[in-house]
Amino acid sequence: MQKLLPILLALALSSLCAGAATIRVPQDRPTIQAAIDVAADGDTVLLADGSYGYEGNANIRVYGKAITVRSENGPENCELCAYGWAYAFKLDRGEGRNTVIQGLTITGAGTAIYVESSSPTIRNCVLQEGSHGVRIVAEYPLTEPHIDRTRIFSNGGDGIQINEKGHALITNSEIRGNGFSFYGEGGVSIHVRSGATVDNCFIAENASATNGGGINCEGSLDISNCTILGNYAESSGGGLYCSDNSSTLSMENCIITRNYAQTADQYALYSWEYLPSFYTISHTDVVGETYADPDCLELGEGMLDENPRFVSGPSGDRYLSQTAAGQGVDSPCVDAGNPESLMVFVTTRTDLVQDAGVVDLGYHYRNPDHDHLTDTLILSGPGAYPDYEYTTSPVVSFSFTGTDEDYPASSLTYSWRIDDEPWSSWSPSTWATIRGLDEGSDIHFEVRARDPQGDIDPSPVRRTFRITNPIYLNYLDRIVVAPGPGYGNPPLVKTGL
User: Most buried one in 185, 402, 422, 453, CB count within 10 A?
Assistant: First the structure.
């Protein structure tokens, strides 16, 4: 597709909700649910340090409100004890990314956070010692919660379970030690017709009674800069398993090692001639036994089969050995990634110098000096993920906003791009209009927020869409939008008609 340099036309829009309130628990309301019940869009429910349990502090419903429920001083100081409860939070009223669960430890729930046909933001949480960490269910393919900087560990079943038609964005998180009861499917399970984008995650020591101790994928998986280590599957694919159910996999900049299974310790990729699956892997270090059915796997550039040489550092034991940081030898995974990839304020070095130049393989630790929580949200525009939208107009507009743990939204600046064009200059504008787009190919719009300290959202939010001829769009209306018996699919959303 011809690349065109985008043109920014519109001026800044204010992102703050006027009159937003902070409702404190237990000072203003005795329970979390009581605080949510009186909250309005834009409000914050702020939890004081302590342990919360019993009615009103589990089986919590948000009822579609665009609010933030957060701790005052982080998950290490605020725990929801949900032993015996079906879930701690249930989000099933169409909550969007501006419904935020932040800075909480949730212990012992049947499911810590249950998401149905909603797309909330879950960040800086600890979800532990229950049956499931996060379960995602979707009645239509527009559900994509964002799970960011969250530790999901020691749950008896799946760490994250994504059911039919659901999709999840999982970034900067640790998924560890799940599935130990052997009734789940390990770290991340992606069911038929569902999918996940997984970026910069550490997936380790999970177990599955069937396949895919680290990740079990029967849908679509886009994964980058992850370390998949020490997982176990009773059958196939200790680290990663992809089924013969028209599954798709795109993997780059990862490390897969020291996983175990009866068949194919590191990964097992299957395909069926009547429902073929397609897999691509590049710039990845895979150490150990693998299996792929014929003609389903494309191995790209930068593949390694070498000891990654992990070393211990300030935040864990999976940094990469580097002479520049004082170790005696360089890991082969240093500067071995896709040269076009970008990592911001993260590091594989024990001296915490951020990754620069060509990206290193595997999981990157956050630099404590740049550990603020900055997130970006697209409010309007074509291309609601995961399905791209069709539009007949060569002119498209997007509005967006951001949130930050320490700064108001009004202080953030934004940079955006189309496809692989250079990023735009940083600007307080929350609106972009792009002209002169071509018909026929997928177009990708990305935007990222930056706070006044210089912290940049490490996971820019993306929309994918396509410019098409109005006649073709009308044809799509006839053959795609009209639901058949037993389906009830929503119509495609079209912009620019």
Answer: 185
- Reduced to 3 states, what is the DSSP secondary structure of residue 476? helix
Alpha-carbon gap, residue 434 to 82, rounded angstroms: 48
Q: Residue 443 is inside which H or E element, if any? A: strand 442-450
What is the mean pLDDT, run by run of 10 residues, along the chain of 497 residues? 35 42 95 97 94 94 95 94 94 91 96 95 95 89 84 95 90 93 81 92 95 95 97 96 89 98 96 89 98 95 98 94 97 95 83 92 84 75 61 85 78 90 92 86 87 80 78 40 30 29
DSSP 209-238: SSS-SSEEESSEEEEES-EEES-EEEEE-S
CA-CA-CA-CA torsion sign (222, 127, 367, 331): negative
Are 166 and 138 spatial neighbours (Cβ–Cβ below 8 Å)?
yes
Residues ≥6 apart with Cβ < 8 Å to 475: none
- Structure confidence at residue 384 (pLDDT): 59
199's enclosing H/E stretch is strand 195-199
Q: Which strand (E) or helix (H) includes residue 403?
A: strand 396-404
At residue 249, the pLDDT reads: 96
Residue 454, pLDDT score? 81
d(CA 127, CA 111): 9
Cβ-contact 335, 358 below 8 angstroms = yes
| pLDDT given at position 470 | 57
What's 58's DSSP letter?
S
Tokens standing for 108?
């012992």
Q: Which amino acid is at 366?
A: R
217 - beta bridge partners? Answer: 190, 242
Q: Are 245 and 192 in contact (CB under 8 A)?
A: yes
On the CB side of 294, CA atoms within 13 Å amount to: 1
pLDDT at 122: 95
Chain-centre distance for alpha carbon 387: 16
pTM to 2 decimals? 0.80
Judging by DSSP bridges, how do beta strands 442-450 and 297-299 pair with one another? Answer: unpaired
User: Which of 251, 303, 306 minimizes the C-alpha distance to 281?
Assistant: 251
**Residue 136 contacts residue 117 (beta carbons within 8 Å):** no
Q: What is the spatial distance between Cα 406 and Cα 399, in angstroms, rounded to a whole number?
A: 23
